[in-house]
Write a structure and sequence with these properties.
- The protein has about 160 residues and is of the alpha+beta class.
- The chain has 3 helices and 9 strands; from the N terminus they run E-H-E-E-E-E-E-E-H-H-E-E.
- It has a single domain, classed as START domain (Alpha-D-Glucose-1,6-Bisphosphate, Chain A, domain 4).
- Strands 1, 2, 3, 4, 5, 6, 7, 8 and 9 form a 9-stranded antiparallel sheet that branches.
């Protein structure tokens, strides 16, 4: 059985800044609670170390679709099934400043009783909301992204922004 979570948050920053920061996967441990490390292997492949319910796990995930300032979709390539999509929606704040709605959707196959219960009780969605709040705080306090990648990925095939 697959578990799905969704979460969203408004970030007081332009869509390009928010998107660029999200492409800095190695910074995820700063704001994603379960993530211990992410290593960028190449433009589409990442290696993850996470701790879920006190259990350490490692897996590879590939970006399957990515369009700058719009969305990033990924899927695990080994271990338990895990996939997700984050969307970036530009909006104008009521005071005229740029704002971005970040919409997260993740799906996975629970491994063990803790993950199954967590999904059933929506604990995972609450954790995702907290993670997005930490991301919001990280980017808003910095006032700028730590880097960015502007290439596109379609069907796990990278298209360099220079081409």
């Amino acid at each position: 059985m697959t578990t799905t979570l969704t979460a969203e948050i408004d970030v007081n920053a332009p869509v390009s800044t928010v998107y660029n920061q999200w492409t800095q996967f190695e910074s995820f441990p700063h704001y994603l609670g379960a993530v211990k490390s992410v290593t960028q292997v190449d433009d589409v492949r990442t290696h993850w170390k996470v701790s879920i319910g006190g259990r350490e796990e490692e897996f590879f995930a590939d970006i399957v679709d990515q369009v700058p300032d719009d969305h990033i979709s990924w899927q695990s390539t080994d271990g338990a099934f895990h996939a997700g999509r984050v969307e970036f929606v530009p909006r104008a704040h009521e005071d005229g400043h740029a704002e971005t709605l970040v919409k997260l959707r993740m799906e996975w196959e629970p491994q063990g009783i803790l993950e199954t219960i967590g999904g059933a009780l929506n604990i995972d969605s609450a954790q995702a909301k907290k993670d997005l709040e930490r991301f919001k705080k990280f980017i808003e306090e910095r006032g700028a992204e730590t880097g960015g990648w502007r290439g596109e990925v379609h069907g796990r095939e990278e298209t360099s922004p220079d081409l």
